[in-house]
User: Fold these one by one.
Assistant:
Number 1:
Amino acid sequence: MNAKMNEMQAAFALVQLRHIDKVIADRKQASLKYTDMLSGIKGIELIAKEENVTYNYTYFPIRIHPDHFGASRDEVAAHLEKKNIVARKYFYPLVSDFPEFRIFKTKNLPVAEEIANQVLCLPLFHDITLEEISFVVDSISQMRQK
């Protein structure tokens, strides 16, 4: 894979860099809204922020504990998809699960496997609206009530 940018991509990137601080600030605000709205839902774990770390707010991952939430990550993802909400399974599948690498797996990875089956990244972009965030959170909350 060649991941180098061509000249046109580089030109677009340079133009976008002028706006990067605002984009990150907007994504941070959206992340804070998600955090506020999701924090009270049993079975949803939010990723703790570390001190002295500068975040770019590229993703908004949550961990769904099916025993406490009442539905698995895959069930939540399917429910969101039916509502045209694009959420992404993250850390899934594990690299050690690919056939090409399975032969190198020398021991079980129970913690990694558990997390790989529980993490879901919610939609996050710089101009996501409060209404869109509310729709995502309300859709997740509906799963909790079932």
Number 2:
Amino acid sequence: MDEIRKLMVKHLWWLVLLVSVGMLVCHGLGVKRIVVDNTSLILLAIVLVSPFVAAIKKVKIGEFEAEIQPEEVSRVTREAERSIPVQAQDDARHVERKAITTIKNLLDADPIVALAKLRIELERRLRRLKQSTDPGTRNIKRPIPPERMIRELVAQGIFTEKFGDPLRGVIAICNRAIHGEDIRDVDARKIINAGFEFIEVLDVMIRQHAATRPLETTVITPEERDKLAAAMYLLTTVVPLVEKPERRLYRLTQEELDDFIDDYSEFAEFIIGLEPASPPAG
């Protein structure tokens, strides 16, 4: 099809020229069976222009571009793929986030709504990460724009510019699509797949940041260490994804507690309490 269009574009000018000359000669000789009027001229102009319509990539009015270019989408997704550390991918992919499942369901129904949901989820994670690194931002009533959060997180060393640039690009394309710029379904899917990678890795960053920054550190004696290592613990969890949600209480040794936490992501329950417990009587 592209070859036919290229052939038409290549040879159309002289075909139209011949038709125009023929119409001019007929009009000059007064051939009554051939009428040259405004309608004929308009149709001739449409014939001349029509092969070029398919070549139009965007309509630009002032600073507004009506279509998001496939080349731009490819560049952003390619940079996104390169920006995700392999180890972060392995840490993130052990479970699919509920947000990702929701976006996948929206994608089949309306890609623009799916892009809007992706943008919301990315901003939510950036805000959580920003609040964990700078608790003072929790009290700010006016939301911080995602672009500014990315810039500040890069400045704080939470992630690199190599990670932040394509993340900013994904959010920017989401914003443009939400505000009316056309995007092909295939390109929307590319952006959403790149966004899934960022959601997963940002979730890992949030967990790691919380787990590696204690609020307080106190030196203890070897005797206290040995006593705590041999202690029993009461672990309280909630199982939410059943017909009748449950609260569960476990009595675990330190070794059993370590095993439970290692496999925690595979359990359909979440921890709500942990405290020392006396060993069972007898």
Number 3:
Amino acid sequence: MNKKQKNEMLWGYLMLLPLITGILVFSIVPFFQNIFYSFTNLGSFGQYKMIGFANYSKLFSDTKVWIAFWNTFKYVIFSVPIGISLSLIIAVLLNSKIKGKGLYRTLLFLPAVTMPSAIAMIWKWLYNKDFGILNLVFGTHVSWMGNPNFVFWSITIVMIWSGIGYNMIILLAGLQGISPSYYEAAEIDGAGPVAKFFKITLPLLSPTLFFVSITSIIGTLQSFDIVMMMLGKTSLVEGKATTAVYMFYKQAFILHNKGYAATIAIALFIVTMIITAIQLRLQKKWNID
């Protein structure tokens, strides 16, 4: 390289240095620290002792952790497909020629930029047994967040509602990237709206759908803030709705078993990587077919 190219490369690395430093300090180093601490009995004051695979043995026999992981998988199974389907329907409608599209997009995107604490407070008020709007509308007196039969579905609805806006914007961007010439050619051949959706929109939108599905699944696997704030620390039905990250928080910051909490985090990381790898494999097969 000549002097000018070396100078440009130097300035390029200098511009990247803050980002690289942040990734190292807040992501990469803590990740490897977490792996190390999963083999210790790290407590509240930073003192630890190597205990080998004892935490992992405890993990496989801990019923509460397995229930938390099962609840997390249920959130993924129910909230992700429903949320993406609703987002796709809304994106298709907003991509058509309707009045007030800008206003609708803004209103639907608001939950995506709203703090989880605000979302949790609003929905806890809606779900309130004594003066909640939901019970007033249906004329019931149901404890939506206190009844073990309803708490999981109540939180699932909040997850779907809070994720629709973000997914809608991503899918809308994908729809606007599809050339209108495809639809014009299909209309000439006599294709109707349903045929155009399944023959043109879905195939061309599949890369965006895969991206949305991957991010939605990873986000749902990491669900914590809304669950934590809606359940609280003393909920009697937390076993019906708690998640893996919630269990990590409880072990680390309430029970002060930080070494065991690190093990739960590693297990969740492995599960997330496996699911993501399966999705990427399916995406490649879809593209080949």
Number 4:
Amino acid sequence: MTRLRFAAIQTGPADEDRSANLTRAVGLIRGLDPRPDVVVLPEIFSLPFWCVGLHDPAFFDWAEDVDGPTVSAMAEIAREVGTHVVVPFFERGSREGEYYNSAVLLGPDGALIPGRLPDGSTVAAYRKNAISSYAWDGHVNDEKWYFRPGDGFPVFETDFGTVGILICYDRWYPEAWRVLALQGAVAVFVTNASEGYVSDMFVPSMRTCAAQNVLFVVAVNRAGTERIRDVETRYYGRSCVVGPGGELLAEAPEGEADVTVAADIDPDDVAAARRRLWVYRDRRPELYGLVSSPTAALPLGSGSSVDA
């Protein structure tokens, strides 16, 4: 198979002017040389990440439909450049009062590529399933106040293979990765607005997830210090591209805004790697029932929270 180029655009602090944020992202994509086959953008990149303890219903006014300004602007540049684009956005659901932290995959023609859930049903967008809520050391995340959880882990069919999408906190759940891989994903695109003490873990964890599931990973994060109202949050960046053996192919600088990392990859490397590491042949799903039990819990007194 022809080699492909995967690119992660590590956008910097966003302000409340969505149009300006989109214009900046379009310029970054347009300036990529050589042309990538896939571009991945950070979590809700066209807006400041407001889920920082503000608890203000006015932010629901920022939500948009799947064909709203963010996806529409990215569809236009996808057609112009001729590339796939993973587009995260704040989605307004079809029913009143439903809001989601979502992402769509656009094809090189700018058209939406539908996702397929494990039960065979189709969806227009991936909706974040693990919704964060925490408070520690002056850091507050209140996503649960704004977002409903998604409806599962769809995969998306492209001309170079099956791919999956995860959003930020989702990446902490090994079950999410394996569900995507068992549906045939050869690459997983992970879009983040991640801050805090986990920066040192970010790249090593993406390498581990790639190796454990034997697939490519493109993980992109915001970077720089973003201010919304009186709250400042520093996003650490460190976007990366990882191969199916866990090899680090590209990494962005810590905290540096509006930079791109890219790597040339061969999708056939996944099949070759899976012939060396037989994790799918040697699975023992009959032993894993506790993982899917809704009543399973950590022993009393064990910690159970982590930031995204």
